[in-house]
Specification:
Length: 339
């Protein structure tokens, strides 16, 4: 019996060593993988528990999310409108052309030679020749005075050359120089380039972009305040739970976690709802815009939010929700600590 006991004592680790190992394991809090798993489980629990609390109060949650979705959709809607209007600048180059009215004594053959000389200019993209007969037919068709014009024995309209410069919107000084060179041609009676309406349209678009940016900032601040106030009210409704958690040693990060996920869910759901609102509105306007575009030779097509813009919208709204919740919780926990 004594030999067995001695062998057992030799094989088994000393009690002091076992206690020391257990103490080190307890102090270390387990292995790295265990910490990661525990951290993941805490976040998953906070994520879905915060969603469950929102579902438990559907009326207040729906009202808050509806207000947030409308605010976000307004900002997104202005951005989409400005992006669609900005399409017009893409077609300005084709409209920003120089019209050269040739002298009355210039024949069609001579006008074709002038066209070839102008096409050789490196600053010119294309040249269109409109003869006297073509100009008269167009005038009859669009003026509504066809019968009166038929009584005229001599065609009073001149030959017109429509010159489309290269990079018309980017090099206005080059356009002015090109216009001056055309005016010096002996065959040209009058040269016309109207850039004033282009400048006005570009200025309107710039103002619209600036207004959309300022509006987005204001609406983003509104989203922050709405989510922050909602999280603050929830924090006060669970104040007893927070106090008990603090008494048992809970950290501020542990207390903040479910409220931050509440802000995340509000921002995320509001962003998705705003995307649906904007998309539905654009679909309603689609037929009217296409009909208007048809009157202008299809120069404008309705643009929707692409994948990158949609992803940015949902990510930005989610981040705003988290940021608004964090700001409120930081102030509340700091004031509670000072008390």
């Amino acid at each position: 019996m004594k030999r067995v006991n001695k062998n057992r004592i030799k094989k088994d680790p000393p009690i002091k060593q076992v206690k020391q190992e257990n103490k080190q394991t307890a102090l270390s809090g387990g292995g790295y993988n265990d910490k990661v798993i525990a951290y993941r489980d805490l976040h998953i629990h906070a994520l879905f528990s915060s969603l469950g609390r929102m579902i438990a109060t559907p009326f207040s949650s729906i009202m808050t999310i509806a207000v947030l979705a409308i605010a976000i959709s307004l900002a997104t809607g202005f951005y989409v409108v400005v992006a669609n209007i900005h399409q017009l600048t893409g077609s300005l180059e084709t409209s920003n052309q120089i019209s050269l009215f040739l002298r009355e004594d210039v024949s069609d053959t001579h006008a074709k030679k002038v066209v070839e000389n102008i096409r050789a200019n490196q600053s010119v993209q294309s040249v269109k020749l409109i003869t006297k007969e073509q100009a008269l037919e167009e005038f009859k068709e669009y003026s509504g005075f066809g019968d009166a014009i038929n009584t005229i024995k001599k065609n009073p309209l001149p030959i017109v050359l429509q010159v489309l410069p290269k990079n018309a919107l980017d090099e206005k000084q080059g356009l002015d120089d090109l216009l001056k060179s055309f005016k010096q041609l002996p065959e040209v009676d009058f040269a016309q380039l109207d850039l004033q309406w282009v400048d006005r349209l570009q200025a309107i678009i710039d103002v619209a972009q600036l207004f959309a940016s300022l509006l987005n900032i204001l609406l983003a601040a509104a989203v922050l305040f709405i989510i922050g106030n909602t999280v603050r009210l929830e924090f006060y409704s669970r104040r007893a739970e927070v106090v008990i958690s603090k008494l048992v040693g809970a950290t501020n990060a542990f207390i903040r976690r479910p409220f931050l996920y509440t802000g995340f869910w509000m921002g995320f759901i509001s962003g998705v709802s705003a995307w649906f609102i904007v998309t539905i509105l654009m679909l309603i306007l689609r037929s009217s815009v296409e009909r208007l575009s048809g009157l202008y030779d299809g120069a404008m097509h309705l643009l929707f939010l692409d994948f990158a813009e949609t992803l940015f919208l949902i990510t930005a709204s989610s981040l705003l929700g988290v940021l608004g919740a964090w700001a409120v919780l930081y102030c509340e926990l700091r004031s509670a600590k000072s008390q």
